[in-house]
Design brief:
- There is one protein chain.
- It contains 14 helices and twelve strands.
- With 421 residues, the protein is α/β, with parallel strands linked by helices.
- The chain is globular and about 55 Å long.
- Bound molecules: nicotinamide-adenine-dinucleotide.
Length: 421
């Protein structure tokens, strides 16, 4: 990691985003109780998990589960393993999940897990014991009808299978619907691996279409060469875009002609860094954000575009594939600079959308082909992107504020019908 700025006040930032939308939306502006209720998670569980390390000693790991809002359905959200995980970050991520599930209109609420650990320092056995220990610590608060976790940064299908197995043993029955993002052998959904990236592409296509543009011919700056970012880069290249700037946690590269994403994927699969790619100039990671290109895609961590670097942004459009990569202060400057931002809660919702499909299939015990998953994904994005774009026009505001207004309305309606507000 080159820096850890992403840990600063993620929760405060999330609250500011909601505040802004609330001030625009009469139903919230005129009834401050509504803001009060959604501006905090309902429950935060903090645990310390003892793990027997390979050397025989026991080490304690600190973890959190934040459950923000479940008015529209069970809490839903990823599990992050990262050395900078903290309470504020997990609270923010759970809040974004509530709005994300509402803006794409699925019957789920918002939650998030985080464990403060650098998983790269653990052996596979230690990682499995940590994953299982975490489930033992909080299994009473989760479950298919209560709270359904999924992968996030540094967690993957294998970890979900361990966790689902541990949960199933604890409750005494096979419970595939307790976790999503599982491998296909444990009844994950076809299409889950590329879902976030595929959805990102569909969102981008739709928004560009509304602006009379297309992906073909666009140049891309991409920060973060992981599951979400690199997969999206590959899909955009297939549609005729060119990635010219790219970075991961160890640095960045630049080639004004093109960067071969297939080659980068090979390098990353072999645990290399993007800097190992030979046909490009190397640079520090954060510089990637400030370069000339049509579309900038932050796909790493929070708080990457801040007051310090926002004025250097040169892209015409930003798609937030990461959660919370732009601080509210920087967001305001981007608005003044007339650089449109497709917000995270809309742009990266593909993972949770297919997680929802996975849950539906687990509940039915009947499984869909990839084409069926993709067709359902496409249908949902068209509805979500159009309602955000229409709301942005109606309220004369940004896509971000519009997305929050769309989501807020749905959450408040559910809370109001249930008598919560
Ligand atoms: P990942 O762990 O697969 O990849 C993260 C990438 O970011 C890695 O290449 C890492 O090297 C890079 N990175 C980390 N710090 C960096 C820095 N300072 N500068 C440049 N690169 C840096 O994670 P992911 O699953 O791709 O998730 C990335 C982001 O997308 C996160 O914000 C996550 O919450 C969000 N997201 C992911 C999904 C999903 O399905 N994977 C869904 C929704 C949102």
């Amino acid at each position: 990691m080159q820096d850890s700025t992403h840990i600063q006040d993620a929760f405060e930032n999330a609250q500011k985003q909601i505040r802004k939308a609330c001030d625009l939306y009469d139903s919230c502006r005129l009834d401050q109780n509504k803001y009060e209720v959604i501006s905090q998670p309902k429950r935060i569980i903090e645990v310390n998990i003892p793990v027997r390390m390979d050397d025989g000693n026991i080490k304690m790991f600190n973890g959190f589960r934040s459950q923000h809002n479940d008015a529209r359905g069970p809490f839903k959200g990823g599990i992050r393993f990262h050395q900078d995980v903290n309470r504020s970050e997990v609270k923010a991520l759970s809040m974004w999940m509530s709005f994300k599930c509402a803006v794409i209109d699925i019957p789920l609420g918002g939650g998030k897990w985080g464990i403060t650990v650098n998983p790269k320092e653990l052996s596979e056995g230690e990682l499995e014991r940590l994953s299982r220990g975490y489930v033992r610590a909080i299994y009473k608060y989760i479950g298919p009808e209560t709270d359904v976790p999924a992968p996030d940064v540094n967690t993957n299908p294998k970890i979900m299978a361990w966790m689902m197995d541990e949960y199933s043993m604890l409750v005494g029955k096979y419970s595939p619907g307790s976790f999503t993002g599982k491998p296909l052998t444990s009844w994950g959904s076809k299409g889950r691996g590329a879902a976030t990236a595929q959805w990102g592409v569909y969102v981008l296509q739709k928004i560009l279409e509304l602006r009379g543009e297309e992906i073909k011919g666009k140049t891309i700056c991409l920060q973060g060469a992981g599951n979400a970012g690199l997969t999206m880069a590959g899909l955009m290249v297939d549609l005729g875009a060119t990635v010219v700037w790219l970075s991961d946690s160890r640095g960045g590269i630049y080639n004004k002609e093109w960067i071969d994403i297939a080659k980068i994927s090979e390098i990353k699969k072999n645990r290399g860094a993007v800097g190992d790619y030979k046909d490009a100039q190397t640079l520090w990671g954060k510089e990637v954000l400030e370069q000339e290109c049509d579309i900038l895609i932050p796909a790493a961590l929070e708080n990457q575009i801040t007051q310090d670097n926002v004025k250097n942004i040169k892209a015409n459009l930003i798609l937030e594939l990461a959660n919370g990569p732009i601080t509210p202060e920087a967001d305001k400057v981007l608005e003044e600079m007339k650089i449109d931002v497709i917000p995270d809660i809309l742009a990266n919702a593909g993972g949770v959308m297919v997680s929802y499909f996975e849950q539906v299939q687990n509940n039915l015990n009947f499984y869909w082909e990839e084409e069926e998953v993709d067709a359902k994904l496409h249908k949902k994005i068209t509805a979500a992107a159009c309602s955000v774009a229409e709301t942005a026009t109606e309220y004369k505001t940004t896509y971000r504020a519009a997305a929050y207004i769309v989501a807020m309305k749905r959450i408040f309606d559910a809370m109001s019908d249930r008598g919560e507000v």
